[in-house]
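Why does residue order matter? Because the sequence determines the fold. Keep that principle in mind as you read this record.
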Amino acid sequence: MIRSRTLSVMVFLLMIAAAAGATVSESLWVPRGTETYNLEAGESVQFRVDFDDLAVRTWILEVDGDLRTCDLNVLVLNDQSLLYQKNGESRHRVRVPWGRGQRVAVTLSADINMGGMFTVKFLAPPSEQAGRAFGYLVNRALEALEAGNARHAESLLHDAIKSGEDEGVALLLLAGLAKERGEPERAAGLLSQAVALPLPEDLRDVRVELEHQLAAVLNRPAWMIDADSLIDQGKTTEVRRLLDDVLERKNEDLSAWELSELHRRAGVAAHAVDDLFVAQEHLDQALNHAGSTRQRALSLHALGLLQRDLGNPHQARQALRLARDLGLPIELDAEAAAQLAALEAQEQ
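Structure:
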């Protein structure tokens, strides 16, 4: 999917430093501990596993009774939620999402008609390939990134910050995602917060690398800085005049990236004053010149809103859906979702 390409540069760098080994196939996981219980018919045994016993991001509890059946109950002690409950099975396999501070209580009960030997294994990546384990939410965010689901990862990272869990790491990952999505100012703001918080030593080099990348990206042309300032002030007429002047004087000197940025801003400004057909021309050009996933997503988002106002709900839905698939900033993604819901409601 295109979204995976969006994550390929900075997040890949982050995950080399912070998540090395986390993608080891579960088929290659090894027992990090084994217990054998000889139970009488109907007898139960209970044991507890803490994070300090198994400092990984995820592990698998495997119970094998050969031909003998048993009941298995796994309770997460942190919130008293039931992770697993099955009765009368000869084999159980439970994937346990894990993180710093997590605890589970396991109850194994032999069948009331037959006891015997039951083997319990705690499977996880080999210790040299397991990668650094963080708190529960950051670990789940890393898994979401590995699966290419940046939107869910961002939500989890924000939750981690709210809970005070691994704030520095969460902010660093969010900054990397924002930079890759083409939001350098937001990335710089997140990174400045991360600098003030403790980071694992192997992530400090990642932070420095991101700082260098942002410094290069933030050297924007003067016309773009002026246009964004006017947009922030709501001076639509002045924005249009400025961008038209840049196009007239510098059209041949502008890169494809600059042309896409310029036409998108000009299209949104024209749309704001209901100059819809001029807006269409600019936004078509913005999409034609788009050289990155971020530029395509933002151009399609603007085109979707324009098609809505032109009375083309089908084209509007197509553009907004594709923009969301490519990856929008959180605020625009929420707006696109709301617009899609409204458009779909209108057709019912």
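The first strand starts at residue 30 and ends at 39.
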